[in-house]
Design brief:
Radius of gyration: 49 Å
Shape: elongated
Number of strands: 30
Distance between the termini: 166 Å
Strand content: 35-45%
Helix content: under 10%
Amino acid sequence: MKIFKIISCFVIAILVMNSCKKKNEVDYSSTKAPEISLILDEIKPDLNKADNIPLVCVIFSEAGLKSVKMKIVRQNVESDFKEVTSFYDVNQYSVKELPLWDENMSFFKIIATDRADRTVEKLIPISVIKYMAPPEITFEKPEIVIDENTGTIVIPRTKFSVKGASKLTKVEVNLYGKAGIISVPLSPAFAQGLTYDFDQEILYKDGDNALQVSATDEYGKIKIETLPIRYIAVPAPVITATGTTTLNPIIANSGTSRTLTFNVTSATGINSIRVYKVEKSVVTEIPAPVSKTYNAEKNVDFSAELPAFAATNNGIRIVAFDQLGRSTQVDIKTIIDLNYSASQRIGSQFYSKDADPAYPGIYNFFSVKDLKTYNLSQFYANKTNIDLYFYFFGGAVRIYTPITNRPGEAWSSDPANNVPLLETWTGRNNTKIKKYVPGSYSFNFDDVTSTDLKTPAIQNYLNTASTATDFAGLVAGESIFFQTSALSTAPSKIGMMKIESFTVDPTNNTKGFYIVSFKVIQ
């Protein structure tokens, strides 16, 4: 009986334990296996792009996810990529992965296992767009060589080809040289495609050193290649004045002539030396025998007897041409029937009596007849010889006619030499002054001729009343017309004056110097 009770208790315990175990187990029989939902059925990563679309899918599990494994298949060989066993939401997991793509990848494998140990797999095909090399640029020649020592300039055609593994979208050509960077038009015209062939005659010159070609494909990959240019130049002809010839302006009377002599050398030989007369912007060749041709001589002593000068002449131009067609030019100004003084120093009123020791004989009173300055005592002794005087008004320019008074100013009298105040003097010249207005005339100071200054228009202009703008506030580079009075030692002379520059002492705005140039009808 006791044994029966023991066996009964043991059986009851086993039944109770089995009952508890069944209560703790979850019944997944009514749930579906995991589902893998793809965003894209195939992944096409492009190795030519920096950014690719990631692999995206969503895994649903009614029973709850136990694990998600990801593998990459390369040439039928699987390798582990990632495994996830912890989930924020066991019923749903989003896959968003961006592997380091390579050409050997063929599939991305996803294995989802739920809590019922049911496993679902999905193979996502991978079609990798292989890396494409940048464009290739090939020049026909390793360099462009132009050697002037041969006596002729032979410039080879420039040819290159461009090939792209993908579509070419742009080709650019730039020429580098002394002139900077110059864009070269494409010939033939560029059209997008896999190839482009350039064939053009580029007129290279001395100083050009490289042709740079850049090609861009549809992925933005750029290839740059450079074609060296070696331009071996010889010097252009050299013109050297000889004998009494100089490059200084020729000051002469109309109807007279000059003989000019030069030595001309050329490494490639001289083709011709041509002489031209210049009248404003009109340049006219003076024919043989003044202009001459040569048979490739490398050293020539050239002599040109010029025809008689005319009042309208502005200059003479000598041009030497070598066998390569290059030239060297020399210009000599001609100033005909005009008295000329270039870059003359004139003092302000501070130097009315005493000159600066550094510039002896430089004062502020100017004589058109002598084209020089005088001091106050000399002016007083010969009043009709002074036609202009130079002044600084608070550091600003003033060009005065001699009858202009500056009452009571100390510079205008010299009691030690018995010279009274300027305002008390009689017999001073009344020089007419009018400002030259650029654009109003067909000439400027540099190319004005005696013919220009003798026109009625200039005389009529000088006959109009002067205003402050005619003589005050002028700046460097500006010019004035003037006409001396009938009583001047240079009576009724019309001329032009140009202010080249002026300087004012920073400690005394009445002290300083002008640098001026004059042209006056003879």
